[in-house]
Amino acid sequence: MHEIIYIQSGTYANYIGQHFWNVQESYFDWNEDPEDTGERRPPEVNHDVSFRQGMGTDGTPTYLPRVLIFDTKDAFGSLSKYNAMYQAVVGEEAVSPSIWAGASTSLRQQPYPKSQYQRDLENEVVGVPSKGGPSQPVPSRKAYNPSTWADYTRVYYHPRSIWPVTYNLGGNGNKWEEGEEVWNRLREQEDDFWDRDFRLFAEECDLLQGVQMTSSGSDAFASLSVSLLQTFQDEYPKLPSLVFLPLSQRKARFNTYDLAERRRIACESKALTMLTEIEATIVPLQHPATWLRGKWASGLAADINFGSAYQTSALLSAQIESATLPLRLNGNLTSLNSLTSLLNDHADTPFSQLSGAFPLSDVHFADKVWDFSTAVDSSVIDPMMYSACTTYRGILSLSDRDTLQERLEQSMGIREPLLKLSLTQLQYPILTSYPPILSEYADTIPLMSILHTSSRTASLLEHYTTALQGLLDENQFAGLGEGLGRDDIRAMRAELVNLREGYVQTDGFELSDEEREEDDDII
Length: 523
Description:
By secondary structure, this protein is an alpha/beta fold. 33% of the residues lie in helices and 16% in strands. It has two domains: 1-30 and 43-86 and 116-455, Rossmann fold (3-Layer(aba) Sandwich), CATH 3.40.50.1440; 459-522, no CATH class. The strands form four sheets. A six-stranded parallel sheet has the order 5-4-1-6-7-8, with helices on both faces. Strand 6, helix 5 (220-235) and strand 7 (241-246) form a beta-alpha-beta unit. Residues 32-56 are annotated as: Disordered. Residues 2-122 form the Misato Segment II tubulin-like domain. This is Tubulin nucleotide-binding domain-like protein.
């Protein structure tokens, strides 16, 4: 079946993930008769890659996302661990007998109210579907303002997918060690999360491809995610991991005396270095505050709010879902292993980039492509491109397909097998849960998404090496926590410098003699 296990960790990562799963659910045809499949064309998307078959507590067959979701308890909103398909087996609301015989007063916290979108959706859906989540659209497209990502969910999740974290992670620059504490508690106190819950998803797969993760990179959720992937890599050393890593806002000048900034830089630097140690393929995503309005945004609404997690995550999710769509298409030979191997073709370039044009109705992508990993206009993609996997969603003539291939080759300076182009007529669906960020109304849109590896990553890594050097120069390690002292910062900086060389050695950029001597001293 070539299944994938998905992991989402941190609030913004779950904003992205909720849009992703809403779209996956929309590809289903709930009216299809299972006995009539022989007379139908198979669906374009192979749902078994991302969804698991199961049985609800009442014996109802289920088909739910194969995902693990970590976030703070408040972020789950009205989304409970048990839903209409999975009532609490032991009794989530059960009252245990008490040895106290006297009078007692019961105090119960008010449940989180359902969002307006959830109420609108329920008004349209009669009964509970037997296979997945409520797929029917609400009658009119409204502008919603959700308080959290759970407010616009269109899918049901398995109870073992839901993991509220009681620690206040995701706050103002949490320490790395706090995420490790959460992971240790999951392993030791939650009836062994790994053996009981993760293995449920892994061992029921016929042929597990690997893990696709979206995780915060700037707080303790990064530590939790890295700890989980380390365990996964120890157990499944031959399976790849593809990690999308939203970062904190990059400022013009790093303030070494700001504790929250120090912690964010330390968390991100450690996440980047440790993810490379477990041989993950990492796709950093720059904070939306760094995005610049330009020609690339001409198809977006003029009032799009780059400060809204709901809106910006929708844009990122469309690119992530489209860039990885070949992994889920029926009849497509792209696998998670072949994708990550292509992106790291040099074997020393674990960091890749996500770019895209949204929407794109033709092959004229000049000035319309934006690099979400480096926050620059990438119409002229890069002075040195190493490899790329491009997905175009939309209807193109045969001649336009050839033209698109030629233009990509010209702009990137690479050809097959380093340049892979996947074409599908399955356009990106604009659901009622999607924010009104398009300049024109549409039910579906064509777009182009690119996962690529290039020398531009060198500037990203230089940002962290410079910031870490600032910590060393100013001797600012207070409040960073265990494992992030002077020696640790020096070692991380040295590792990032070495990683940067993998992106600059072929484009004419050379480290100065002073930099090399300085790096030798650090090592």
